[in-house]
Amino acid sequence: MNKYEIMFILKSNEGDAIKNEVSELKAIITDMKGVITDEKEIGNRQLAYPIKKELNGYYYVINCDADKETIAEFDRKARINENVIRHLIIRLDEE
Question: Going by C-beta distance under 8 Å and a sequence separation of 6 or more, which residues neighbour residue 88?
């Protein structure tokens, strides 16, 4: 398994909708035998420029251990999800 850092920005809706969306995205990793090692809820921030006509976004960062199939599935579902404005997946180097 490799170490990854995943950052995604959600549309800023009501709190319950955001929590449900985050739990669904985390479930993609855990259902495919990935392990979430750390997570940071950065919160609602103003975007530097409009993305998909959104001016604000809800930022969230997840650190996880997963294989490349799990990350590929997360990437696929994040691209399809209309509530995800942007996402970024970075593979962390082994030190």
Answer: 6, 7, 8
94 close to 1: Cβ distance less than 8 angstroms: no
Q: Which residues of 43-80 are buried (b: 16+ CB within 10 A; e: fewer)?
A: eeeebeeeeeeeeebbbbebbbbbeeebbebbeeebee
- Phi and psi, residue 92, nearest 5°: -85, 140
pLDDT digits (tens, 9 = 90+) for 25-52: 999 999 999 999 999 999 999 999 999 8
Architecture of the domain whose range is 2-91? 2-Layer Sandwich (3.30)
DSSP 38: E
Which H or E element spans position 66?
Answer: strand 54-66
Total-model pTM: 0.89
Query: Looking at this protein, which amino acid is placed at residue 50?
Result: P
Domain locations along the chain: 2-91
